[in-house]
Write a structure and sequence with these properties.
Blueprint: H1 2-14, H2 22-27, E1 36-40, H3 47-54, E2 59-64, H4 69-79, H5 94-115, E3 121-122, H6 124-133, E4 138-141, H7 146-157, E5 162-164, H8 165-168, H9 181-186, H10 193-197, H11 206-221, E6 251-255, H12 261-270, E7 276-280, H13 284-295, H14 299-302, E8 305-308, E9 311-312, E10 317-322, E11 330-331, E12 340-346, H15 348-355, E13 360-363, H16 369-374, H17 377-383, E14 386-390, H18 397-406, E15 414-418, E16 426-430
Parallel strand pairs: 1-2, 1-4, 2-3, 4-5, 6-7, 6-13, 7-8, 9-12, 13-14
Antiparallel strand pairs: 10-11, 10-12, 14-16, 15-16
Helix pairs in contact: 1-11
């Protein structure tokens, strides 16, 4: 596998577009940003693209927002914890999801029309029909997830020119889209491939080395088949039993609390036997639902859960923040994204001083994991909490985060696991 990784890197060095779609490699079109654009895919945000359309920088003709099962599940999650326990026989099936999708898209489309909204929100069929009828149209697909690949397949089957957003941002005409975390998420893995491969000796087991190799291949090729052999069930994420042996006295710091999903998972894997949970979530919208989740717990359990509307950083201060109301909200040091406000941030060392040393930390800081770990150095050196750290937000996370963990405490063992058929599923465990 190491030889394949090296060979792929060599191919990209000689031809940067080696793994672009066939239509692009055949035609090598110029300045795609001037084409009529359709934003196609399951990403509710598209805020930056819509802002560019409003400023006249790009010509957006429509936005297609698929409402997939995971999004509906998220809505049900927020409504009431009891709904998560519905028997399988009465859960909505595929037909019901499809009907809900049609109703939601139709309602959104009508709402946009009544508001004079632009660009219009389209159904999948409308997107295909309009894109075919629009000469020179380009469809941008936001991410390479399982649901987004449906859009790529539909575009290919209907002869539409389409690129994943991460592909488009590698082109000169979309260079200005390379801002904030996305800028670093693209990177140039091929150029530093030997540094990545040198990490083989750092990880504790063969499975971790396979995850390293296959995620590097995926980053370079966008071929999802590279990830299929390493994908594990998402329910194991953050708390794999073979790596993290949980105890009844755990004090768990949850960096990136979102709406309480990780806390619920922690309840499940511990059977409710733990000392304390401290959950950090700086996004106002997410924090509202996090507190609602806490309020849904029994009085005894709620007393052991602390929710803080702060972010994790390398010092106590106040920083600009890109609030999306989703799991992708992030600290925006460039102050260039839409919906920028400000948040309070603190250090994990300070939280350890206030609440007691953590025994377990989950760090999913949406690109700020490095700063969060710097602010945890004393705790790692002194107390050695076990940690689950996401290593996919920035393209060189492997290279940057390993020394931030092993530096304060060389006794840490490290392992990698992957949980999705796209780039966003890699977690590093320190134990």
């Amino acid at each position: 596998m190491r030889a394949k990784v090296r060979a792929t890197a060599a191919e990209l060095k000689s031809d940067p577009y080696r793994y672009f779609p066939e239509w692009y490699r055949r035609t090598r079109p110029s300045d795609l940003s001037k084409r009529p654009i359709f934003l196609a895919g399951p990403w509710g945000g598209w805020g930056d693209a819509r802002a560019r359309a409003a400023r006249g920088e790009i010509d957006v003709r429509g936005v297609t927002e698929w409402i997939p099962e995971f999004l509906l599940a998220s809505v049900l999650w927020r409504l009431a914890p009891k709904l998560r326990k519905l028997p399988a026989m009465i859960r909505p099936g595929p037909a019901a999801y499809a009907a809900i999708e049609r109703l939601v898209l139709k309602g959104l489309g009508i709402g946009a029309a009544l508001r004079g909204g632009a660009p219009p929100i389209l159904s999948v069929d409308d997107w295909v029909h309009r894109a075919k009828a629009t000469p020179g149209s380009l469809s941008l697909i936001p991410e390479e997830s399982e649901h987004a690949r449906k859009f790529e397949r539909i575009a290919r089957e209907n002869g539409l020119d389409a690129l994943y957003l991460t592909e488009a941002m590698r082109l000169p005409e979309f260079a200005s889209w390379n801002r904030g975390p996305y800028n670093d998420a693209l990177g140039d893995t091929a150029a530093r491939i030997e540094e990545f491969l040198a990490l083989e000796d750092v990880f504790a087991d063969d499975e971790s080395v396979q995850v390293l190799h296959r995620t590097l291949l995926y980053k370079m090729t966008h071929h999802h088949v590279e990830l299929e052999p390493i994908v594990q069930a998402g329910c194991r994420k953050y708390f794999p039993a073979e790596l993290l042996h949980l105890r009844s006295d755990e004090r768990f710091i949850d960096v990136g609390g979102f709406i309480g999903d990780s806390i619920q998972q922690f309840f499940n894997v511990t059977g409710g036997r733990f000392r304390q949970v401290i959950s950090l979530e700086p996004d106002d919208h997410n924090y509202l639902f996090l507190e609602k989740y806490r309020a849904s717990l029994s009085a005894e359990d709620a007393a052991r859960v602390v929710c803080l509307k702060v972010g994790a950083w390398n010092e106590k201060t106040r920083l600009t923040f890109h609030a999306t109301g989703t799991g992708g909200s992030n600290i925006d040091a460039t102050n260039t994204a839409a919906n920028v406000g400000s948040i309070d941030v603190t250090t994990l060392d300070a939280l350890a001083d206030e609440y007691g040393p953590p025994t377990l930390i989950k760090c999913e800081a949406e690109g700020s994991d490095r700063e969060a770990l710097i602010g945890c150095a004393r705790t790692m050196a002194t107390h050695r909490p076990r940690m689950a750290i996401t290593v996919y937000h920035l393209w060189d996370d492997y290279l940057a985060l390993v020394p931030l963990v092993r530096g304060p405490n060389p006794d840490y063992k490290l392992a990698l696991r992957h949980y999705s058929l796209d780039h966003s599923g890699t977690t590093m465990y320190a134990y």
